[in-house]
Amino acid sequence: MSLLTSSCYLLPWSKPAQIHGYLNFSKHSKLLRQECTTVRCCSSRSWQTPRAQHNYYELLGVSADSNAQEIREAYRKLQKQHHPDIVGQKGHKYTLLLNEAYEVLMKDDLRRKYDESINQMRIRLGENNTPLGNSTWKGPLRPQALFVDENACIGCRECVYHASNTFIMDEARGCARVKVQYGDTDQNIEVSIESCPVNCIYWVKREELAVLEFLIQPQPKAGYGVFGGGWERPANIFTAAESFKKQLRRQAT
């Protein structure tokens, strides 16, 4: 659901928690809806970009703000590596996908429409266009929110043990997540952060929360050629959020 200037809030904990600041949303992002979008290519055939479809930027291994030269170099490198003349028939479908990605990203109008299509995720907004995350809040809203990087979580349950009203264990994913922001006392939350052996609990700005919680959810992964399907999510959630913000900027211009 791709990919930010960083500002930090220091909290009065005895141990500084990890802090990230992203996603300073503007009026241009009031509602981003996920839906299937069809873009007509110059070859008169169409392609669709539902959630399960491949991300062209990830396919080419480039960032969302890459220029034409970077896209061209990445495309040529991958074509050489996976061309059927080199790897055999198994590379045929993959090179077709590379051709499709290259064709779209190298044309300004198609790229703009594609960027719009992959940014069409639903974000609930509160007052002053502040995104609302999946977790709920206890008491008044605060500038900072808790976020668990589920990629780094090892399922030790320490945070749940020390602050069970704030954190829950997602048995299906095998990791913890935030259920209620500030569901426990500040002291209990501090202890839960201290007890995390892998430092996967972050303090983030409240307005970041919706996108971070959305991006961390596993998304269906389409299979093609010799590659299988399954589920996936960004390996680095904060880099993914940064890429998403850049795409929003492109869309707003």
Automatic annotation (TrEMBL):
Origin organism lineage: Eukaryota, Viridiplantae, Streptophyta, Embryophyta, Tracheophyta
InterPro entries, A to Z: DnaJ_domain, J_dom_sf
The J domain, residue ranges: 55-118
Superkingdom assignment: Eukaryota
Organism name: Arachis duranensis
UniProt cross-references to SUPFAM superfamilies, sorted A to Z: 4Fe-4S ferredoxins, Chaperone J-domain
Protein name, entry field: Chaperone protein dnaJ C76, chloroplastic
PANTHER family with a match to the protein in the record: CHAPERONE PROTEIN DNAJ C76, CHLOROPLASTIC (PTHR45295), OS06G0474800 PROTEIN (PTHR45295:SF4)
Residue spans crossing the bilayer: none
